[in-house]
Amino acid sequence: MDKKIIEILAKNDKYCSHGDTVNYADPPKVFENCEGSFLFDENKTPYLDWQMWYSAVNFGYKNKRIADVLHKQVDTLPQLASQYLHKEKVDLAEIICKYMEEKYGVKGRVHFNVGGAQAVEDSLKVVRNHTGKTHQFAFMGGYHGRTLGASAITSSYRYRRRFGNFADRAHFVPYPYCFRCPYGMKVETCDTYCHKQFEQLFDTEYQSVWDEKAKQSEFGAFYIEPMQGTGGYIVPPAGYMKKLQESLKKRNILLVADEIQMGVYRTGKLWSWENFDIIPDIFVFGKAITNGLNPLSGIWAREELISPEKFPPGSTHSTFASNPLGTAVALEVMNMTLEKDFEPHVRNRGAYFLKRIQELKSRWKCIGDVSGLGLALRIELCESDGFKASRALADRMFNEGLKGDIMIDGKQYGLVLDIGGYEKNVITLAPSLLISEEEIDLGIKLFEALLKRCGAE
pTM here? Predict the structure, then answer.
């Protein structure tokens, strides 16, 4: 190992908290450069990135157009307290709001913050302020962040265990995960049985969520990832989300869509909820809105939830909210997507990628399910029966890909993978939206080489 890398790892071990996710890998991987769809280590070995910073870098590393805007903003107005206005903030908010007005006929407003979890916290304030309710519905397998409020609506107890009791812990509902249906049903014949189970919660007061006399629920909102992210890039069955929103509307329960990972054309639409014939009352965005450059996040909410009378000045605040570097870059990202219809490109490239991984499935017994939407794709790794989850294989492939020693056509590569899923056996694919077909083909070769190396069948 290079002396410089040994020194970096030693300092990390001595001075850095291990409470983040860096030390999931042992040892942690060090990178020194990036370009397009690739990361580079100290030896300039290219690593094809199939996860692009958890879908934060949708338009590729070092995207020149976006980087040029950042440089220009650094030279003009790089810093400004968030209590003051600047043009980029209001222009960005206008684009998001006009999109909702012109396409869906719904008026609303945008509130900015820095990270995704912070924006989720802001959305919780909007929900509580409007409904007076502290409890929410959320999905099993859902992920909304690791702040205290976001952890309360994230189903993994692992994120809450060390921090005491959560009085505002959500009521978690099974997500329609058809490959591993929690009810043992088949999607072809179940008639969205999982939705019927949710509806039964409102049959009587003894189901614990509904007061029939008062016509009120204990729960203010249902937090969803329209297409589940960390849970394994799961696409819900047709019609499910629409039925869910209809159930919520009947009981005056808000629908909040978390678009932090799937927003900004990851699924082929600007916002992933647009694929499912629903319109949320609030949606949360972040990550790719700045292509992974200066952090910016935010929420859009219907006017009646976030009007100045309803949500007055000072209701929520962050020092770096609507920072001018973030808003300038996000404005450019939005302008890029609006200049032409970006959807056909993502759909076509995603269809090609899905076809290639379906071909992989036909050759390997260990690949139990492949599916996706746009360029959010999944490969579920299993035992040779094609169903029993194989976390061990996923872990081996993740670690082997980071070694950077895969030989393809006489050249050395690495492959950056991300693991998700309820049993941590799903390779979640979030490549650059600008990935070429040649790079997709290279990725398939690299992935297949890892399967062979790891003894898969």
Answer: 0.97
CATH code, residues 68-339: 3.40.640.10
What would be the CATH architecture of the domain defined by 31-62+342-453? Alpha-Beta Complex (3.90)
Give the torsion sign (CA, 381, 382, 383, 386): negative
Nearest to 217 by CA among 125, 123, 137, 126: 137
Mean pLDDT of the chain: 97
* Contact partners, residue 9, CB within 8 Å, separation at least 6: 27, 28, 30
pLDDT tens per residue across span 310-343: 999 999 999 999 999 999 999 999 999 989 889 9
